[in-house]
Design brief:
The chain is an alpha/beta fold and 562 residues long. Among the domains are: 160-233, Oligo-1,6-glucosidase, domain 2; 507-561, Immunoglobulin-like. The protein has an eight-stranded parallel barrel. Strands 19-20-21-24 form a four-stranded antiparallel beta sheet, with helices on one face. It binds 3-O-alpha-D-glucopyranosyl-D-fructose (OTU). 3-O-alpha-D-glucopyranosyl-D-fructose is lined by residues 111, 114, 151, 191, 214, 263-264, 266, 305-307, 367-369. 3-O-alpha-D-glucopyranosyl-D-fructose (OTU) binds next to loops.
Length: 562
Amino acid sequence: MEELQNQIRPLLAKLYPESDNRIEALSHQFVHLIDEHQAKRSEALKAFDKDTPANWFKSSETIAYILYADLFSPEAPQGQKLEALRKQIHYFNDLGINLIHILPLLKSSGDAGFAVDDYETVDEKLGTNQALQTLISECHQQGIHIALDFVLNHVSDKQTWAVAAKHNDPHYYPFFMWSHSGEPWEKVPDIFPDFAPGHWDYVEPLDQWVWSTFYKRRPFGYTTDQFDFAQWDLNYQNPDVLFGMINNLLTLANWGIDVFRLDAVPFLWKQPGTSCISLPQVHTLLKIFRLSLQSVAPKAVFLAEANEQFEKLLEYFGQGDQVQIAYHFTLMPYLWQAVTAGKVKDIQTVLTNTPDHTHWWILSESHDELSLEMLDKPIAKTLTESFLNNGCQPFRQIKGESFPRGISGTTFSLLQGDLRKIKLLWQLKLSLGWTPLFYMGEELGVENDLNYQKDPIRCQDSRFVKRVPLTEDRKNRRHQKGSKEYQWYHTLKDLISWRKQHPCLVKKPDFFETGNSAVLGFTKQDAQEQIIILANCSDLSQTVNVPTLGTPTLEAFEFLSR
Ligand code: OTU
């Protein structure tokens, strides 16, 4: 414990440079908190910790899948969604999935669960705390790991701290950041410009404004409430906030969660005159959260959700003392650029620059929009235009800009159902390295659903176009030969099984020149085998020139592995 105190002291001193006495008191408080949660960890989980290899999440076997518990079992009665999920573990076993990210499932008042009301209670529409723990332990028994969101940047304005602050409680008021004018800070971008512009939310009882990066009831410039909830950012300059959130994290960790997805992590620290994104203090906070987690749940890991410039993204790994995994947000638009515009060079550049010690979740879609803002403007514009079809919707449209920062749509709809392109996208995701990630419905060719537009609360948030129920009917059609679902599902299932037969595919790729700008060439190697891969990302046949392979010609979208 003394060692822990020595580790925490300098980190706290960095964030809260006050008197030595204060830091001493805070570090005692920290150690006490850790102690408490260590004592609460169940014997079953302690045994599981022991049996789990240190780098389990880097295994070539790991294939991840994101789902909403309610949308995955739409027919199950309210309150039994988690139980229904437990009864479908065979679905994941069949497809080859062994890591499931269940999107927010705590009591919440909006943003599809990301406005959390209560960090210790499962949303009663989905099930009970007990049902979640039963699901987790059954998954563990079957070799499936569970990821959950840790929404640490903000709370819903119905969460206890926020409610107390709204009532001017002197302890909780400084859990948030306040303004008397609501005037925007110059360098801070709008994250949801479409329906929650600015970064302050008007709080009527106090006649003041509170900092809010995402959903707001009443954004600056509006005279009426736009929504019946808001997401208030936490003020980490107050150590009570940090300790409160560590307590929430460790409570969840003691439920047996394996991966914590750190939602909206770049926004944790605000400072006037900056963009308030990925400030150095964010990384100090992460080190503290990491120290907390590893002290209680030694095999649980963090996943950074930071849609940032590549150099900034890399900072989230720290010196091995921050997150263990990050979404490869830089690669994501490059994958789309490759399969829709035949441009492969950027994939090669970014992956060559991806350091060996990092680990990634490789995704082409998630429950959010497809963000193209990191691409060069002309190509982003062209791709956007080609994607705004089949009900795909703009997201993050900033006034005065000619095209949106992102697009909401399912993979099927974005690619207009072209199985050749999706197959290539999946082949790339499964072979480029690290851990491939799939979003619910991707495997069944699910199309956009415009029903959200009839819902008065959701209609402005186009991301709901891709949050589609996977009905029994839809899932069952995967057994009917000739159906779209059969075709898509079995294509993915076969590819996952191919990936699992070749453990070397988890490694970072070694690229070679193909003499053709539309064809990506790379090798993978371990002690057992060497694989050479050529991927033609264009819709025309292409000839390459590779010394070891000669001058083979590849069909449009052909993926060749030897
Ligand atoms: C995340 O996304 C979640 O994935 C969203 O579903 C939530 O609405 C949001 O946080 C608030 O909790 O802007 O459009 O760099 O890209 O945090 C998605 C990180 C988002 C941001 C990300 C955010």
